[in-house]
């Protein structure tokens, strides 16, 4: 492949003029500077006039962000019921939320939020004792923008290693606390990324990181992941490199110890799908042994019992299976089935000396309990049809916790007695919501090629199918991620005002295993967009809504989904919400960890055929001059170092340049925030109020709570 980049003199400059009473008809967008930047792919010249927006450190980019936000918030401030919507959201979110506990030492540790706290607080409680705050990230910063991202305890519970993130960044800092004295016991570790923390006894722990990149910490490409061992009481500069680096150039490396502390398990991958598996016998300080070096499959070690290893894998089993082997000869030719593959996707966990097999059946949960030899003990009775998460614990425990939820069933915690198989309600939230007023159905519709695709639809009972119901169509469709039924208080305000929520399970996801995933990747990525378009068409054809009342939404890979859909079918929906999306498919792999997404997308450098395929659907490149696009609110954040904001910047600038019609096309750029994780509740309320009010306003819908003011 030939590739050449050249930059010539800038030809225009941007300016901004706006006022506080902007409407869709008189919006004056910032005029974004264009430069003569051209890339050449396989003798094909591709202009990139907004390349300068990729520089997240420049004052010019900062000024552009300010100018765009000025226009966007002037428009949003013009929506009369927006403040009342924020008040309703605050009321809905102001309830106590408790998350499933885990036992460490003499305490149960758990997250809890009293209601509108920006970050969840980490509590602990002895059996029969009073709860106490262990870590409160709301005290880490005045703005609530520093989040607690993970905790990991030593086996005896005497030490806790935890990580924090600032402004939603993927870069982490790690600290260690003595759980008795509640004191930090050593210096802070820095520059940790895409990592867990896993203790080796009480002496130290494993973590993963990259070298600090040259240039922008937020956008510079990260390449060689490294697994380190940190010994307590020593400086980070002396941490031992265990695996990775230039000699083992994997982009994602993880390391964790088994519960018995005998083995170090290492997973290594060059992309987000598929990994190689290694194990080291720490008892004998043995060498690192390859278990499976096939990068096309996914494996992890589920449990170790002496020399015996239990492994979950999709090798020769697209829907996953559990196998056993021994440390003396763990290679794939020795594997024997413990839980064979079935027609449903498996995700296994262990606790109390058993295996808990969580199966996905048409995106709904079924759980079975097996002994460690693979003998079925029982089917676990769940409260209803929906999603169950958890079912993991230490091997000596006789009970575990799990969380159950569905679209109209608030997330509730159950305590499960392992010997008897009985579930007992442990905690259930009290919410201003009556589930009896709503209904959920699952339908199957045909995509363009005849594939049957499932979709959940949620709305008030007795709703009239007259084609005038505001409908929020949300999907993802990628990276083997499954969208399951789940409850969200943030969704209530849409539903209680006569709205419909629809969630299709597109190809590219993991709902039907690796075959379903692969059917939405690389040269088959168009299947994902076709599935999404067909979902919208089905809703219209069956009178749930019409294009004038349809909003399409998705984030990250789902932002790409929305961007591709609105460029291919600008007539499908009235409103589009592409959030933190991957919008430049020719250059995504040049930023941060983007190269790891190649297993799903392919890259513009693979072949001319792949380049042409990507360019054809790449949202930035698929926009056409003179087309009337939906009312669009692009959303991103200035500290997003997962999908860098330049994707959204360039898409919004191009959209504003080409769009021809009365619909507003705006970008909302959150400050001091990242890809989404750790976003303070206060910012979540602001963001959601802006999306819902933007949708209703452009659909011409007055929500019920605002009708008394009209």
Q: What would you note in describing this structure?
A:
The protein is of the alpha+beta class. Among the domains are: 63-90 and 438-709, 3-Layer(aba) Sandwich (Rossmann fold), CATH 3.40.50; 100-257, Methylamine Dehydrogenase, Chain H. The protein is 17% helix and 34% strand. The chain has 11 helices and 41 strands. It has an 8-stranded mixed sheet, with helices on both faces. A hairpin with a 2-residue loop joins strand 27 and strand 28. Helix 2 crosses helix 3, helix 2 (82-93) crosses helix 11 and helix 5 (526-541) packs across helix 6. The protein is globular and about 70 Å long. The relative contact order is 0.11. Mean pLDDT is 91; it is low at 1-23.
The average pLDDT value, as a whole number, equals 91
CATH superfamily grouping of the domain at 63-90 and 438-709: Alpha/Beta hydrolase fold, catalytic domain
Give the tally of β-strands. 41
What name does the CATH topology of the domain at 63-90 and 438-709 carry? Rossmann fold
Percent range for helical residues?
10-25%
**Main β sheet profile:** 8 strands, mixed
Per the principal axes of the C-alpha atoms, what is the gross shape?
globular
> Whole-Å distance between the termini?
62 Å
Strand order of the largest sheet: 34-35-37-36-38-39-40-41
Indicate the proportion of strand residues.
25-35%
- Output the CATH class name of the domain at 63-90 and 438-709: Alpha Beta
Rg of Cα set = 26 Å
Number of helical stretches of at least 4 residues: 11
In the predicted model, the low-confidence regions spanning at least 5 consecutive residues are 1-23
Please state the second-level CATH architecture of the domain at 63-90 and 438-709.
3-Layer(aba) Sandwich
């Amino acid at each position: 492949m030939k590739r050449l980049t050249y930059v010539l003199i800038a030809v225009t400059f941007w300016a901004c003029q706006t006022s506080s009473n902007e409407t869709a008809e008189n919006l004056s967008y910032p005029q974004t500077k264009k430069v003569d930047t051209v890339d050449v792919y396989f003798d094909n010249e591709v202009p990139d006039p907004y390349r300068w927006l990729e520089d997240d450190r420049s004052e010019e980019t900062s000024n552009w962000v300010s100018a765009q936000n000025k226009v966007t918030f002037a428009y949003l401030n013009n929506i009369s019921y927006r403040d009342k919507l924020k008040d309703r959201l605050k009321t809905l979110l102001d309830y106590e939320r408790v998350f499933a506990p885990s036992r460490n030492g003499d305490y149960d540790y758990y997250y809890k939020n009293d209601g509108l706290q920006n970050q969840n607080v980490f509590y602990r409680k002895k059996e029969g004792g009073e709860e106490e705050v262990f870590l409160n990230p709301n005290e880490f910063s005045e703005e609530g923008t520093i989040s607690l991202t993970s905790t990991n305890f030593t086996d005896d519970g005497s030490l806790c290693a935890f990580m924090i993130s600032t402004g939603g960044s993927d870069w982490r800092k790690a600290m260690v606390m003595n759980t008795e004295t509640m004191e930090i016991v050593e210096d802070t570790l820095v520059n940790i990324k895409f990592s867990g923390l896993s203790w080796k006894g009480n002496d130290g722990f494993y973590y993963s990181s990259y070298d600090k990149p040259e240039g922008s910490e937020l956008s510079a490409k990260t390449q060689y992941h490294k697994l380190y061992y940190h010994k307590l009481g020593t400086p980070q500069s002396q941490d031992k490199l265990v695996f990775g680096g230039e000699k083992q150039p994997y982009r994602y490396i993880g390391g964790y110890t088994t519960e018995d502390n005998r083995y170090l398990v290492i997973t290594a991958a060059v992309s987000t799908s598929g990994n190689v598996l290694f194990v080291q016998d720490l008892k004998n300080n043995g060498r690192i042994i390859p278990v499976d070096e096939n990068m096309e499959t996914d494996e992890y070690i589920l449990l170790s019992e002496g020399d015996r290893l239990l492994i979950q894998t999709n090798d020769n089993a697209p829907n996953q299976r559990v196998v056993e082997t021994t440390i003396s000869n763990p290679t794939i030719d020795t594997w024997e089935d413990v839980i064979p593959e079935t027609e449903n996707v498996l995700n296994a966990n262990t606790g109390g000396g058993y295996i808990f097999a969580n199966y996905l059946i048409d995106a709904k949960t079924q759980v079975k309990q097996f002994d460690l030899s693979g003998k079925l003990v029982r089917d676990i009775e769940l409260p209803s049809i929906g999603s169950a998460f958890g079912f993991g614990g230490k091997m000596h425990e006789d009970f575990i916790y799990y969380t159950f939820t569905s679209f109209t069933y608030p997330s509730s915690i159950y305590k499960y007695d392992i010997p008897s198989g009985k579930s007992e309600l442990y905690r259930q939230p009290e919410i201003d919501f009556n589930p009896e007023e709503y209904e959920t159905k699952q339908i199957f519709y045909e995509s363009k090629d005849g594939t049957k695709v499932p979709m959940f639809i949620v709305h008030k009972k007795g709703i009239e199918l007259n084609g005038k119901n505001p409908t929020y169509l949300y999907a993802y469709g990628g990276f083997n991620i499954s969208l399951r039924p789940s409850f969200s208080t943030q969704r209530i305000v849409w539903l209680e005002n006569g709205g419909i929520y629809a969630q299709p399970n597109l190809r590219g996801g993991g709902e039907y295993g690796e075959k379903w995933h692969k059917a939405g990747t690389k040269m088959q990525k168009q299947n994902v967009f076709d599935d999404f378009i067909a979902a919208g068409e089905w809703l219209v054809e069956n009178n749930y809504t019409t294009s004038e009342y349809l909003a399409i939404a998705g984030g990250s890979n789902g932002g790409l989904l929305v961007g591709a859909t609105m460029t291919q079918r600008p007539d499908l929906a009235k409103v589009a919400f592409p959030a933190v999306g991957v919008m430049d498919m020719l250059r995504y792999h040049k930023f941060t960890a983007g190269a790891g997404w190649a297993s799903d997308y392919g890259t513009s450098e693979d072949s001319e055929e792949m380049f042409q395929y990507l360019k054809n659907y790449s949202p930035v490149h698929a926009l056409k001059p003179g087309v009337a696009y939906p009312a669009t609110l692009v959303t991103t954040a200035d500290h997003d170092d997962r999908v860098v904001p330049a994707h959204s910047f360039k898409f919004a600038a191009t959209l504003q340049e080409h769009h021809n019609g009365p619909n507003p096309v705006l970008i909302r750029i959150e400050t001091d925030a990242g890809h989404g994780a750790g976003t303070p509740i206060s910012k979540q309320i602001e963001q959601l109020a802006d999306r819902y009010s933007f949708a209703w306003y452009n659909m011409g819908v007055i929500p019920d709570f605002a009708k008394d003011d009209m």
